[in-house]
Each structure stands twice: as C-alpha cells, then as structure tokens.
Design brief:
Length: 356
C-alpha cells in the first residue's frame, strides 16, 4: 500500500471529474489517498471523499468581456496570496508532513508539486495542459500572444515531474522522455448512458449578446430543435428549450442529440467523442488551450471551429452533423482502460513501485 496525495486545480470542471475517477481507482487498489483541492474542485470532491479532502490555496482566473484578463488575474491572486499562505502552511504542516506521502499526483495544481520538489518526494503530473509544453502538435496560425502566454504559465506552474501523463484526444509527439500522451478518461455518469441520435442540437454557453438575441437567432432555424444550457432556467420558446443546470440532464441531452455547440473545453470534447457527437466549438478568447482543441476538432473531422456562435456557424453546423464521424488514425478516442494501463506502467517504474 502506498500513501498518495492527489492535488487538483480548482478552475475548470475537468480537473475535479478526472481526479474523482483516478483517485477512486487508487483507493480501490488499496492505497491510502488524500486529496488537496481548491475552489470548484474542493466543493466537487468533498461529498464523495469527505475527510480525505483537504484545502489547498488555488489560483483563480478573472474574466473581462468573455475572455481571460491577465492583469485582473494577476492582481486578484496577489490580493488573495496572504490568505493562501496561511492555508498552504497549515496543509503542509498538519497534513503533508504527517502523512509522509510516497507519491504526489498533481492535476495542474502547483503548490503540492512545489512541496514535493522541496521534500524530494516523486510526483506525477496528469493533465491536458502540458500538451502545450511537452508535446509538439501542429499549432493553428496566429494567436502568438495567447500561445506564448499559455506556454509561459504552464512552464511556471511546476517542473521536474517524474512523469507527465498528458491526456489528449489526438496523437502528438512528446518532446521529453518523461512525457507520454494518453487517451481521455470518461466519468461513470457518461459511460453509463447509451447514446442515440435525436432531432435536437445542444447549445452549451451563455451568449454575449444576451438571451433575447440568442432566441431571435435560433428561432430562424425552426423547425430544428435546440436544448440550451448556460442560463440556468427552465423555459420553452417555440423550437428552443432552456434547461436548468443539471449534470445528468446535460449528459442525457448530449447523448441523444445530433450534435453540440459549445466552448472548447477538453472534458466536454472527450464526452462528445465518447457519444460520437459532432461539435461546433467557439473557444473562450485568450484561452490558447481551447484554441488548439477547436483547431484539432475541425482538422480531424470531429466538427467545426468558429470564433463565436452565429447564424452562419449554426447553418454550417447543420450541414456538418449530417456527415459521418471520422475514422482518422490520429484520433485518440476516450479509453479508461488504456489510460490506466499507461498509468500503471509508469507507476511501476518508480524507485518504490506502485501498482493499480
């Protein structure tokens, strides 16, 4: 049995849902696991793992007009740093030092990685973000500043991991020996749903121009039906059904849809691929990871990449959803079993081997 700290970034749903799957697998394999989580991940993991979940100070993104604001993000985190120092000092002294972990696993959470480096404890990185630093994909043209910014931030988060397992939906050559690309993992709620092809399109995003403008635009495409998530309301408007926030409802609507129009988050892309649904993606401005994701979705025939949700984008997408899903050898379809085989193989290579 190994003692393992699983540290989880607090921004973005993918980190917490992924750590839930992997952390539970480690516990089921007989290992003693505690979680260090912040913000959204702390709230998500606590109901599942109770006292195993401890708080770590987490960095937060700040947005302005729908895009990440670097200046606001930096100022906000500096303002919060005094409280963060107290939280992390308590975590290190009262938890990590007493627990004496054999391994740290971090999903883009930097402070546990810093502790591991200082204490000379091996640590693994399991995330999607290190695709930008430890692989050499083909990058979309332009967006030089967001690309540099994303590369720099990812580099600064942490370094010298014993292994970087980079979850991704397409093959990309690794540029260091300690990195390996692995297929996406899918949460149980999604894998338990049997997909089918319905008559509706799922729209998952708030609309900058406002709800009325969105309704006006979507009504032009009647009798096509749309299920809209993101406004957290329940309402019917001709061919548009607004849905309240619901993980189960969203997954079922996606699994039974023609396709989905949404931002380009990695976890959402993974689940759409699991359900074999075409995507129309509009990346959040300034988030280079999403720009690359959307670029490859279109490049591989998995859907379309557009700057924003517009009439032309919907018109193009209604044509796209009638095309078959691609059979491209570069695609890495979600595969939990293959991911755990890769993780198990790398864990066995530690100086004190760990098995799952």
């Amino acid at each position: 049995m190994a003692r393992i700290v699983y540290a989880v970034a607090g921004e973005g749903f993918g980190h917490s849902s992924r750590s839930h799957i992997i952390g539970q697998k480690l516990i089921d394999s007989g290992h003693d696991v505690i979680f260090a989580a912040s913000n959204k991940s702390l709230a998500y993991l606590k109901p599942f793992f109770g006292d195993r979940v401890k708080e770590v100070f987490g960095l937060k993104f700040s947005y302005h007009q729908g895009r990440v604001s670097a200046i606001k993000t930096i100022c906000s985190n500096i303002w919060r740093s005094h409280r963060g120092l107290k939280i992390n000092s308590k975590l290190y002294g009262e938890c990590f030092d007493k627990f004496k972990p054999d391994l740290i696993i971090t999903d883009f959470e930097p402070f546990s990685a810093f502790w591991a480096l200082f204490k000379k404890v091996p640590f693994f990185s399991i995330d999607h973000q290190h695709l930008l630093t430890h692989c050499t994909p083909q990058y979309p043209p332009g967006n030089l500043w967001p690309r540099f910014n994303a590369y720099f931030v990812t580099r600064c988060y942490y370094s010298r991991a014993a292994c970087y397992i980079i979850l991704n939906f397409f093959k990309a050559p690794e540029n260091i020996a300690r990195a390996i690309v692995a297929p996406p993992v899918i949460r149980e709620q999604a894998s338990a749903i049997r997909p089918c092809r319905g008559e509706h399109i799922v729209v998952y995003a708030t609309y900058p121009a406002g709800e009325k403008s969105l309704v006006k635009m979507l009504r032009k495409f009647a009798p096509v039906k749309f299920c809209v998530y993101g406004f957290n309301k329940s309402q019917q408007n001709v061919n548009i059904t607004f849905k309240e926030r619901s993980t189960e409802g969203f997954l079922k609507d996606t699994a039974s849809s023609k396709g989905i129009a949404a931002t380009a988050g990695f976890s959402l892309i993974s689940e759409c691929m699991h359900f074999r649904k075409k995507m129309c993606l509009f990346p959040i401005a300034g988030q280079y990871e999403q720009i690359v994701n959307a670029y490859y979705v279109e490049k591989l025939g998995l859907g379309l990449s557009r700057k924003e949700l517009s009439e032309q984008a919907i018109e193009d997408f209604l044509t796209e959803v009638e095309k078959p899903m691609p059979d491209d050898p570069r695609i890495l379809w979600p595969d939990n079993e293959k991911f755990f085989d890769i993780l198990n193989e790398r864990l066995k290579q530690l100086s004190i081997p760990i098995a799952i």
